[in-house]
Amino acid sequence: MEAGLLSSWLVEVIGSAAAVLGTLCWLPQSIKVIREKQTAGISLAANLMLLSAVSLWMIYGLMIGSWPLVLANAVSTALVLIIVVMKIRYRQPQRKSADTG
């Protein structure tokens, strides 16, 4: 294999591995939230920001015609959206503090 071809191949392997891991990392959290219907330890703000980021990456992928980028971020968007919807749906009511009576 030629040096340029090998480095190009390595770049593709590293990029593909990052896309797969970055996409699938949200699968366990989504499954856990669906099964347990408990979201107290999950930050809504952080997940809304993440949802915005992966949605924008998906739109960017569409604009430049990068289908791997679109696909990876479409899956990520769906998984993070599940987490956000479940967080809102199963939000714990605010407790009144002892000072407010």
From TrEMBL:
Pfam families the UniProt entry points to: PQ-loop
GO cellular component, one term: membrane
Membrane topology designation: Multi-pass membrane protein
Subcellular location(s) of the protein: Membrane
GO terms for MF: sugar transmembrane transporter activity
Spans through the membrane: 6-27, 39-60, 66-86
Keyword Magnesium found: no
Coiled coil residues, start to end: none
Main location: membrane
Alphabetized InterPro entries for the sequence: PQ-loop_rpt, SemiSWEET
Name assigned to this protein: SemiSWEET transporter
Organism: Pelagibius litoralis
